[in-house]
Automatic annotation (TrEMBL):
Residues 278-320 have a biased composition (Polar residues). InterPro entries: CBASS_pafABC_assoc_protein (IPR051534), WYL_dom (IPR026881). Residues 267-320 are annotated as: Disordered. Residues 147-213, 551-617 form the WYL domain. PANTHER family: PROTEIN PAFC (PTHR34580:SF1), PTHR34580. This is WYL domain-containing protein.
Length: 755
C-alpha cells in the first residue's frame, strides 16, 4: 500500500509519531528523547525551534504537551485534561450525533465546517466500515478569506482586509469580527473598526466574497460587546441598497410557515380579520414577529402607526383592497432596493401592496418575464467536469482584481496532522480498525488522499523503532490494531477550542436546547470548558425550529440504529397528508431546510421528504410486519448499494424530490444573461454547462458584451411552481431549452397580471 508522500506529509506524520510516543509514555520523556528520535542530524537550535513548533501543532490537534521539571531536567508529558472520558457515549449515541450534525459540514454557508468534521471524528471514532448512516457528502470548498475570518472570530484576533465596496472602490480596514451569517449561499461577517485613533463606530456588514486580501493580526485582540446579537444585522437580498422605505406584501396563509422560515422571521406579520360588519381589520395576535431591527424606515406610507409598538398598521383603505382576503397575511418590511424586492416577491409567490412605485416595478418585472425564450438544447457536461456556480468568476467579477485570498497555495501539514491524530483516537483497543473507504466518507476527502492517510498511520514512528502494531489485510485498504503486552495505541482526545465552537454552532443550528440530555453528555465529555455556548449563539445566526430538531433527531436515531420510520407527509403535489413507511438512507441539508432521502416501502422507490412537512413521526424497529412491506430482504437494496459505491452522486444541494407519484422530474437547461439573478436567488443543484472545446464554463466571463451563463437544473413538471416562479422573476433574462417550463412561466405570470 505504498503511496507517494511529500514534505508536508512527512511533517504531519512526525506530529502523529510524537503524539503516539507521548500518549503511550509511562513517565515524562526528556527533551533529548525528542531531539534524537524526531529531529536527528540537526543542530540544537533547529531542534529546539522545531520541537516548539510541533508542540504548538499538537495543541491545535487537541493534545496539549506540558513541561515537567520534577526530575530536575526538562521533560515532557501530555496534559491529562486533553483526554476525553473513555466510553462516555454508546456507539449508537455517537453515531446519532454524527448523523445529525455532519450535514452542516457539507453546507458552504456553515462556518467552521472543517472544525466540525474533526470534532465529530473525535466523538464518533468508528472508521472501520462505510454504512448508509455514515455516508456523507464531500467537504465544501472554502476560500482562504473565509477560513481567516472564522479563525479570527474564534481567537478574537484583528483582521486586516482589502475590501471591494459596492461602488467598485477598494478600501483597507482593520476590523474585529463579531459575528457571521449567510443568506442564499453568500457569507457575511459583521465587524467593528479597530484602527488606531479611530472613534468607536457601529458594526458594519461585509460580504466575505468581496475580500480580496486578508491577514491575521494576532497581536491585536478585541472583545465582542456584551449586547451584540448577529441577528440584528441579517438582511434579506433587497435590504441592501441606497433606498429606505417600508413596504407591504400580501402572503397567502398556506405559504406562511415556509415563508417565515425562508425570511428567518424578518419583518412584521399581520393577520387579516373580516368581522361580520364587512369592514376589514388586522390583528397581530399570535402572529406578529417584531424582529425588524433596522432603523425607522422613511418614505410614503398609507398606514397608521401604533403609538405603543412603533410599528405601522395597515390603513382601512389598504385593508379594503380587492386583492386582500381573510385567507391572507400582510407582511411589512424595510426595502432598500425596489428592483430586487419586486423580483424577489415574484420568486416567492407573494404580491406587493404598497408603495405604488414597488407595485409598478413588480408589474414591469412580470411583463418583461413574458418574454422568456426557448433556446436549443443545452447539453449536460461530462460527469465531474463542471465547476460549481460558486467556483466560476461570472457572478463575482471583482474576484479577478486579486488572487491574494482565493489562491490556496501549498496546504500546511496542520490539517493533515489533525486528521491523523483523530484517526489515532480510533485505534485505542484490540481489534479496532480503520479503512480508506470510511476515512474518505467521513472526512469528505477523495480515496487517494484517504489511502495516503492510512499509509502515514501505518509507518508513523521515531528513530527508536516504536510503531503501532497494525495488521494490513492483503488487498484491502484497512488497518487493524493488534494489541499485545506493551503494544502502542491511541486514546480519545477532547476537542480543541475551535472544534468546540464548531460543535456548539452545529447544535445551535439544529435547534438543540442547551439542557438536552444528549447534548449535555457530549459537551461535558468532549468539549473545551473555556468556550461559552451562549457566546457562540450571539455570534452566529444558525437557529432552526423546534419541530425541525425533533424530527431530525428521530431521523438520525433511525439511521444510527437501522430502524424504519412511519409518518404523515403532505408534499406540494398532495391534496392531503398521506401515511408513509420508509427506510431512511440519508439525512442532509439544502439552504435552511432538512431533507430525508429514504426508500418508500410502498412505492419501492427512493424518495426525498422535507422534514418540516413530516408529522406524527414514529421510529419502528425492523419487526416482521414492517420488513414484509419491503420489496427485498436484502438490508442494502439497489439504491443503497448505489450510494455506497458512488457517494459523490449524492448532491447536498439537489432540490427536494416529491413523495407523490405524479411529479416526474428531469433536467432542463437555463441560459442566464444577467448575473444579478444568480446571487439574488438560490438555485439548488444548478450545474454549469462546460464547453468541451474551450474546457471552461460557457459565457462565464461577465465582462464580455452579451455574455451568457449556461447551466442545468432539475425540473419537476407543471404543478411544482418553484422553478417557474424563479425564472419568471428574472425579467426575461433567463431562457430555457424546455418548452413546458417556458409555458409554465408564462401561465404563472398571466395569473398574477390577471388578478
Amino acid at each position: 500500500m505504498m503511496v507517494k508522500v511529500n514534505e508536508t506529509d512527512l511533517e504531519a506524520q512526525r506530529i502523529l509519531a510524537i503524539a503516539i510516543a507521548l500518549i503511550n509514555a509511562k513517565r515524562p520523556l526528556p527533551t533529548s528523547y525528542f531531539y534524537d528520535n524526531f529531529y536527528p542530524g540537526r543542530d540544537d537550535e533547529v531542534r529546539r525551534k522545531s520541537f516548539q513548533r510541533d508542540r504548538y501543532r499538537l495543541a491545535r490537534c487537541g493534545l496539549v504537551v506540558k513541561r515537567d521539571v520534577s526530575a530536575g531536567a526538562a521533560a515532557w508529558a501530555i496534559d491529562r485534561t486533553s483526554l476525553a472520558q473513555p466510553n462516555a457515549l454508546t456507539p449508537t449515541e455517537a453515531l446519532t450525533i454524527d448523523v445529525a450534525l455532519l450535514p452542516f459540514a457539507s453546507e458552504p454557508s456553515f462556518p467552521y465546517a472543517e472544525d466540525l468534521r474533526m470534532a465529530l471524528s473525535k466523538i464518533d471514532r468508528s472508521f472501520s466500515e462505510v454504512t448508509v448512516a455514515r455516508l456523507h457528502q464531500r467537504a465544501c470548498r472554502r476560500s482562504r478569506a473565509q477560513e481567516l475570518v472564522e479563525r479570527c472570530l474564534s481567537a478574537r484576533h484583528a483582521l486586516r482586509i482589502t475590501y471591494v465596496k459596492a461602488d467598485d472602490t477598494q478600501v483597507e480596514r482593520t476590523v474585529g469580527v463579531c459575528g457571521l451569517f449567510s443568506l442564499r449561499g453568500v457569507s457575511y461577517m459583521v465587524a467593528v473598526r479597530l484602527e488606531t485613533g479611530q472613534e468607536a463606530t457601529p458594526a458594519h456588514t461585509y460580504n466575505i466574497d468581496r475580500i480580496v486580501k486578508a491577514s491575521e493580526l494576532s497581536r491585536l485582540t478585541y472583545d465582542i460587546p456584551s449586547d451584540f446579537e448577529v441577528r440584528d444585522y441579517i438582511k434579506l437580498p433587497f435590504q441592501i441598497g441606497h433606498e429606505n422605505y417600508l413596504a407591504r406584501f400580501r402572503i397567502p396563509k398556506q405559504l406562511l410557515h415556509e415563508f417565515r422560515s425562508e425570511t428567518r422571521g424578518r419583518g412584521d406579520f399581520e393577520e387579516i380579520v373580516r368581522p361580520n360588519t364587512g369592514v376589514a381589520s388586522s390583528s397581530k395576535d399570535g402572529i406578529t414577529n417584531a424582529s425588524e431591527n433596522s432603523p425607522q424606515a422613511s418614505g410614503p406610507l398609507t398606514s397608521n402607526t401604533d403609538a405603543v409598538s412603533g410599528h405601522s398598521r395597515p390603513s382601512s383603505t389598504l385593508m379594503q383592497s380587492e386583492h386582500i382576503t381573510n385567507t391572507d397575511v400582510i407582511w411589512s418590511i424595510t426595502v432598500c432596493d425596489t428592483s430586487a424586492a419586486a423580483s424577489w416577491a415574484i420568486a416567492e409567490g407573494i404580491r406587493p401592496i404598497e408603495p405604488a412605485n414597488l407595485v409598478m416595478e413588480w408589474r414591469d418585472a412580470l411583463e418583461r418575464g413574458l418574454a422568456t425564450e426557448v433556446v436549443p438544447p443545452l447539453h449536460a457536461s461530462p460527469k465531474g467536469s463542471a465547476p460549481s456556480v460558486a467556483e466560476t468568476k461570472w457572478t463575482l467579477p471583482y474576484d479577478k482584481r486579486s488572487n491574494a485570498v482565493s489562491s490556496r497555495g501549498r496546504r500546511s501539514g496542520l490539517q493533515e496532522a489533525r486528521r491523523l491524530v483523530a484517526l489515532l483516537g480510533a485505534l485505542s483497543e484490540d481489534g479496532d480498525s480503520i479503512s480508506a473507504a470510511a476515512i474518505s466518507s467521513r472526512l469528505g476527502i477523495e480515496m487517494p488522499e484517504a489511502k495516503k492517510l492510512l499509509e502515514l498511520v501505518s509507518s508513523a514512528g521515531g528513530e527508536d523503532g516504536n510503531y503501532l502494531s497494525l495488521y494490513a489485510e492483503e488487498g484491502q485498504a484497512r488497518l487493524t490494531l493488534m494489541e499485545f503486552a506493551g503494544t502502542l495505541r491511541g486514546l480519545p482526545l477532547r476537542l480543541t477550542e475551535d472544534e468546540t465552537v464548531a460543535l456548539h454552532a452545529a447544535f445551535e443550528a439544529l435547534g438543540t436546547k442547551a439542557d438536552d440530555p444528549l447534548r449535555i453528555k457530549v459537551e461535558s465529555s468532549y468539549a473545551s470548558p473555556s468556550i461559552s455556548p451562549e457566546e457562540v449563539r450571539r455570534s452566529l445566526s444558525l437557529a432552526s425550529s423546534d419541530q425541525d430538531e425533533s424530527v431530525v433527531r428521530l431521523c438520525s436515531q433511525a439511521l444510527a440504529e437501522g430502524y424504519g420510520l412511519t409518518f404523515s407527509y403532505q408534499g406540494t403535489c398532495d391534496a392531503e397528508a398521506r401515511h408513509r413507511e420508509v427506510k431512511p438512507l440519508c439525512l442532509r441539508r439544502s439552504g435552511d431546510s432538512w431533507y430525508l432521502d429514504a426508500l418508500d416501502l410502498a412505492l419501492k422507490q427512493e424518495r426525498t421528504f422535507r422534514t418540516d412537512r413530516m408529522t406524527d413521526v414514529i421510529s419502528r424497529e425492523k419487526d416482521a410486519e414492517f420488513v414484509s412491506q419491503d420489496a427485498s430482504t436484502d438490508p442494502n437494496p439497489a439504491c443503497v448499494k448505489t450510494r455506497l459505491a458512488a457517494p459523490e452522486t449524492n448532491h447536498a444541494d439537489s432540490p427536494v424530490r416529491s413523495a407523490a407519484d405524479a411529479c416526474p422530474q428531469r433536467e432542463v437547461g437555463l441560459r442566464f444573461s444577467d448575473p444579478r439573478y444568480l446571487s439574488l436567488f438560490t438555485w439548488p443543484g444548478l450545474t454549469p454547462v462546460v464547453s468541451k472545446r474551450r474546457g471552461i464554463t460557457d459565457g462565464c466571463d461577465g465582462t464580455e458584451e452579451g455574455a451568457t451563463f449556461d447551466a442545468r437544473i432539475l425540473y419537476y413538471g407543471n404543478g411544482r411552481p418553484w422553478l417557474a416562479r424563479h425564472v419568471a422573476a428574472c425579467r426575461g433574462t433567463v431562457a430555457t431549452d424546455d418548452r413546458e417550463l417556458a409555458q409554465e412561466v408564462r401561465q404563472y405570470i398571466s395569473s398574477l397580471l390577471g388578478e
